[in-house]
Amino acid sequence: MSGRLVGVGVGPGDPELLTVKGLRVLREADEVFVPVADTGEVGRAEATVREYLDRERITRLLFALSDDREAREHNWTNAAREVSDHLRGGKTCAFATIGDPNVYSTFTYLARTVREMLPEVEVETVPGITALQDLASRSGTILLEGDERLALLPFTAGEEPLREALAGFETVVCYKGGRRLGEVLGVAEECGRLEGAVYGARLGIEGEEILPARGMAGREGTYLSTVIFTGREREEGS
Ligand SMILES: C[S@@+](CC[C@H](N)C(=O)[O-])C[C@H]1O[C@@H](n2cnc3c(N)ncnc32)[C@H](O)[C@@H]1O
Asked: Which residue has the CA at smallest separation from atom 2 of ligand 1?
């Protein structure tokens, strides 16, 4: 008999952004896992979970510790093996991940590898509040109205996808661009989309910054940075 693997989105940083359902699932799980990585996500999911659960209830899983693909895959396999051992015994295992577990999440890799090991495992997710939603809320940014469309992309995909998105969508959200912020803002400037754009870093975490993106010109950001381009000025009074 194999158990249940649940990916729980715990929000971008502020522990109050963990949903009631997410908290219930974490509390009821037999085992609670959190990723440990060198991507800037280090400890973020864990820090949120620790606000609600005792440390002894939390098991760390080592994920990407290197840019080396082979080393990364090795870590994922080890992590999946550890979780699978518990699932084989019929346990419910929860895996906490920042933001939403279906949006650029380590949970996707974990679930895929676990499924290869245990094809009959039940996999579920509990949605979490994404960084883009938190940034929109905290900066008073309306994401979409009427017929408008939104594109979400990682800057790791390169400059061209960002250029195409800025040309084709009313609202564009750029993830994973913090360390190359100068390039992100350069592309936006070229496309005439810098006005009204907002930058958010380390949302809900110590060192948080929320600024008009223009104010970041010439500065680099951190890995946990998000930029929203709306082409609209920020809401009055926010
Ligand atoms: C691996 S993705 C994780 C996305 C996450 N699953 C979500 O739903 O928002 C990491 C990227 O999410 C964004 N991000 C996540 N947490 C953030 C935070 N606290 N502040 C700003 N950006 C954040 C950044 O763009 C970062 O590079």
From this structure: 104
In the numeric block, which tokens belong to residue 180? 């190359």
Entry field: residues in the chain? 238
Domain ranges for the chain, please list them: 4-126, 131-229
Q: Specify the amino acid at residue 113.
A: T
Which CATH architecture describes the domain 131-229? Answer: 2-Layer Sandwich (3.30)
Query: What's the predicted TM-score (pTM) here?
Result: 0.93
Instruction: Give the count of beta carbons closer than 10 Å to the beta carbon of residue 157.
Output: 14
Confidence band (pLDDT; 50, 70, 90) for 234?
very low
Cβ of 35 closer than 6 Å to ligand 1, yes or no, is no
How many Å is the maximal CA-CA distance in the chain? 57
Beta bridge partners of 203: none
Residue 32 · residue 57 · CB < 8 Å: yes
Summarize pLDDT for 67-89 with one digit per residue, the tens.
Answer: 677 877 888 899 999 999 999 98
CA of 105 to the centre of ligand 1 (A): 9
For residues 139 and 132, the answer to whether their CB atoms sit within 8 Å is no
Distance from residue 96's CA to the centre of ligand 1 (Å) = 14
Ligand 1, atom 5: nearest CA belongs to which residue?
Answer: 99
Domain 4-126, CATH class in plain words: alpha beta
Between strands 198-201 and 209-212, the pairing is antiparallel
Please give the pLDDT value at position 66.
61
Phi, psi (deg, nearest 5) at residue 59: -110, 130
